[in-house]
Amino acid sequence: MAKTYDVVVIGGGPAGYVAAIRCAQLGLATACVEKWLTPQGEPALGGTCLNVGCIPSKTLLESSEHFHRATHGFAAHGIRIDGAVSVDVGQLQARKQTIVAQLTGGIAQLFKANQVTWLQGRGKLLAERQVEVTRHDGSVEIVEGDNIILAAGSLPIDIPAAPRDDVRIVDSTGGLAFTEVPKRLGVIGAGVIGLELGSVWSRLGAEVVVLEAMDEFLAAVDQQIAKDALRQFKKQGLDIRLGARVTATRSDGDAVTVHYKDKDGDHELGVDKLLVCVGRRPATDGLADPDADLELTERGFIHVDDECRTNLPGVWAIGDCVRGPMLAHKGSEEGVMVAELIAGRHGHMNYDTIPWVIYTNPEIAWVGKTEQALKAEGVPYRVGTFPFAANGRAKAMDAAAGLVKLIGHADTDRLLGAHIVGPMASELIQEMVLAMAFGASVEDLQLTIHGHPTLAEAVHEAALSVHGRALHKVN
């Protein structure tokens, strides 16, 4: 007879493991099915984010930033290094793996502490809220759940023009695992992943060429912020070519030739490694047995309502495999909401105040509406900006590029959007997320005292600028 749980979660990434922990905290007998194996063949929790996504990429970004400062920034501070500065890619990768192992191991400990049962293997939804678990040794177990939460995550999108060989032509996972710095790196896609990984290897000495099919850089970002960021990236040496559509690639074992087309015609580009980062797709292939009758969209996402209910009673879906941004924190909060709803409590998810971050240097972060979106919607608004070049803390940090931009409703003064390109944008944006969550006005930010000298003063000045009251720039 199949073992029965109150909740069975399929997927142990940021959406699934958080959902499982919260369900257990609420007194529900919970199991989580996760198939991930490390390169050493060891089972691991955390999904893409912790194993080959958010955490390892930020670790490499931090290491590459230290190297870049040592080679380009220390002299201005009077710090001299005698002899050449070199990078040990092996040690850099070992540090990354140590941090990943610490965090994934931490989730396993949290499962134990909260009495979540970890079922190691691949989960498949069957009819009548049953789950087939295929373990790594090939054995199969059937478990049942009064509720099932699908948190299958996502996978990199492959493109026919650049078939992956995982040696010369790689996806984001391969781009995180290079054992040496490529002399010349090609990147297909100037999105979040392409820019972050391109930045890592550029700082470590690679010549990086980014090919982006769209004519507009970071089209989803406020365009004033995007254009400022593009200037900074080009100044750093990133060769970003817009309107460049890759048509074919050829790998001869030692190099890759990339054929692409832009407004000026056909071109060839020779690189040592090619990183394909054109987006991600929901990992729903084989997730549900046809007899389960789970409804998917045309693009393979699981169809859900505003509270993440699927078309099947007692079956929920969260994270990258459902509509909305593919962001770890979005999936985690959906997991908490669903856990609360299953337990008969009130679940809450505010999709209007989800922060976005690109961890380049300068960082890019935003929440709420862009100026171009408000124009298209016909919403009256006011804009205020403040440059980090006029911020004392940013100057002291040698990080004075970029700006803060706030957008308020022209009639009600409610904060509608916040956009930053500059130092620690990922941290600064959280103030505006909180402000928007509480329905704050621009004036509320104006009347809030910000410490001096801090980067956050740029937020205060941008708020003052919305009403033409900035104190440290000419209005």
From TrEMBL:
One GO cellular component, as annotated:
cytoplasm
Q: Where is the FAD/NAD(P)-binding domain?
A: 5-335
Cofactor field: FAD
Q: Which reaction does it catalyse?
A: N(6)-[(R)-dihydrolipoyl]-L-lysyl-[protein] + NAD(+) = N(6)-[(R)-lipoyl]-L-lysyl-[protein] + NADH + H(+)
Q: Where in the cell is it found?
A: Cytoplasm
Q: Which residues bind FAD?
A: K58, G123, D320, M326, L327, A328, H329
Q: What is its EC number?
A: 1.8.1.4
**Primary location recorded for the protein, binned into one broad class:** cytoplasm
Protein name as it appears in the record: Dihydrolipoyl dehydrogenase
Task: Kindly report, in one word, the top-level EC class recorded for this enzyme.
Answer: oxidoreductase
Q: Which family does it belong to?
A: Belongs to the class-I pyridine nucleotide-disulfide oxidoreductase family.
Query: Which Pfam family is one of this chain's hits?
Result: Pyr_redox_2
Disulfide cross-links: C49-C54
Question: Which N-terminal residues, if any, form the signal peptide?
Answer: none
Which NCBIfam families does the UniProt entry name for this protein?
A: lipoamide_DH
**UniProt GO BP:** 2-oxoglutarate metabolic process
**Which residues are noted in the entry as NAD(+)-binding?**
G189, A190, G191, V192, I193, G194, L195, E196, E212, G279
Q: What keywords is this UniProt entry annotated with?
A: Cytoplasm, Disulfide bond, FAD, Flavoprotein, NAD, Nucleotide-binding, Oxidoreductase, Redox-active center
Catalytic residues of the enzyme: H452
What does the UniProt cofactor note say?
A: Binds 1 FAD per subunit.
Coiled-coil residue spans: none
Keyword Flavoprotein assigned to the entry: answer is yes
Residue intervals of the Pyridine nucleotide-disulphide oxidoreductase dimerisation domain: 354-463
